[in-house]
Specification:
Strand content: 35-45%
Distance between the termini: 38 Å
Order of helices and strands: EEHEEEEEEHEE
Helix content: under 10%
Structural class: mainly beta
CATH topology of the largest domain: Chitinase A, domain 3
CATH architecture of the largest domain: Roll
Number of helices: 2
Oligomer: single chain
Strand order of the largest sheet: 2-1-8-3
Shape: elongated
CATH class of the largest domain: Alpha Beta
């Protein structure tokens, strides 16, 4: 079966930056819904017409992947507003930031704690791979038609290309 919109594909891959550093590796096949929210549009477009067994090497510039880095999405907020167990790498959903944080932070973003100082915390609303060109070597392991239920969900639940925050107490942390 050839890959078309609204099908489910299982992929394995190696994701690297342009210097060759491995950023992510999928050794076991993982299913993704094409035409949903699982993959970047540039990856879906490239996969069209391929079939199980095909291998592809993609080079994606930032505008085809996670966007350019936007320094206007970096915020400093008082350390006292955050939980004591705060660690670098934790994430906060923009809709559930602690009261008193910078008022003009876009609510639709996920903010990653990138630095912690005694008096303030640095929150970054950019995707961790923003501004980075990536190389993706992938193999199509299988292709099948998507069920109506899968199409209705819009995802196979494999959020590899999206940041998500998880609830923990009164704050949203990851």
């Amino acid at each position: 079966m050839k890959i078309t919109p609204r099908c489910v594909i299982a992929l394995t891959w190696t994701l690297k930056d342009t210097l060759g550093e491995v950023l992510d590796e999928l050794d076991e096949p993982v299913e993704f819904l094409l035409g949903g929210d699982d993959l970047l549009a540039s990856i879906e477009e490239t996969l069209q017409g391929h079939e199980a067994g095909d291998s592809l090497d993609l080079h994606l510039e930032p505008d085809q992947a996670f966007g350019d880095y936007d320094e206007n999405l970096v915020f400093l907020d008082p350390r006292k507003l955050f939980p004591l167990e705060l660690e670098e790498g934790m994430t906060f959903d923009g809709t559930a930031l602690p009261a008193g944080t910078t008022a003009d932070m876009p609510k639709e973003k996920i903010y990653t704690v990138t630095e912690i100082y005694p008096e303030h915390v640095v929150l970054d609303g950019n995707h961790p791979l923003a501004g980075i060109a990536i190389r993706l070597s992938l193999k199509v392991e299988s292709v099948r038609s998507a069920s109506e239920a899968e199409i209705g969900k819009g995802s196979m639940g494999t959020g590899f290309f999206k940041l998500e925050a998880q609830s923990m107490g009164n704050s949203t942390l990851h």
